[in-house]
Each structure stands twice: as C-alpha cells, then as structure tokens.
Amino acid sequence: MTVTAITDSLLEAHVQTRENQREEEEERFNTLSESNNRPEYASFFAVMGASAAVVCSAPRAAYGTVKSGAGIAAMSVMRPELIMKSIIPVVMAGVIAIYGLVVAVLIASSLNDISLYRSCLQLSAGLSVGPSGLAAGFAIGIVGNAGVRATAQQPRLFMGMILTLIFAEVLSLYGLIVALILSTE
Hints:
Blueprint: H1 3-37, H2 42-78, H3 88-108, H4 116-153, H5 158-183
Helix pairs in contact: 2-3, 2-4, 3-4, 3-5, 4-5
C-alpha cells in the first residue's frame, strides 16, 4: 500500500468516526429535549383546561335553565298551551354544558405522555370554551326569562326571542370552535 492509500483510509476512518459521534450526540440531544419537553407537571395544565371547560360552562348552563324555567312557570299560569313551545331556552342552555363536556373529554383523552406545548394548548382550549359558555348561559337565562314572559303576552314576539337566543348561543359556539382548533392542533 502506498502512503497516500493509507492516509486516505485513515482519513476516511476518522471522518466515519466523527459522523458516528455526531449521530450519537444528536440522538442524546433529542432524547434530552424530549424529556425536557415532557415534564411531569405538563399534564396539570391540560387537566386545568378540562376543568375550566366544565366548571365555567356547566354552572351558567344551569343558570340559564333556572332563569328560563322561572319564566316558563310564570308564563304557564296565563298561557298553559305555550309551555312546550317555551322550552327552547332551556334546551339551548343545556347545549352550552354539552360544549364544555365535549372539550373536556377531548382534553382528557390526550393526557397520556403529553408535551408541555400540547398541554398549554389544552389549557387554552378549556379557557376558550369555558368563559364563552359562561357568557352565553348568562345571556340565555336573561333573554329566555324575559322572552318567554313577553311571548305569553304577545305571541308575535316568539321569533324575536328565538333569534336573540340564537345570537346568545353563538357566543358559546365561537368558544367551542376555537377550543376544537386548539385541542386538535
């Protein structure tokens, strides 16, 4: 063998060794970054997002049901034939709680080995649907109560009440859409 051939083979062996070392370092770095990206407390934020989704939306849905129910009870004394027609605000208030439950179940289904980034997205999803459900439930309760009582006195106000209830429900739907986008990111 010539000196050039020996030098070339040594150089090639050295380059191969350096490439192997670089690959091992990259693998070690990726393992470390994955463990740093998945700390033990990461799932806490996702659980808080699920809690926020249910804790904020369910009580306001109950508030909307109670306020609308009080209006239905007062209205049924004067116009008992309108009771079934006046149940719409109660149903719409119940849907708000379902939105919070759906997001909480989506978040809870992704808790296994969750990264910190994903966990913060889940927290944001819960905080998106929860407070929007809070506002919508409050609006549905007030509109449902006043609308049902007014409809008993003037039946032509029924469509106006329904439209106002739809606009109040849409507030919660916006939060649900944002939450679904965030939780499936």
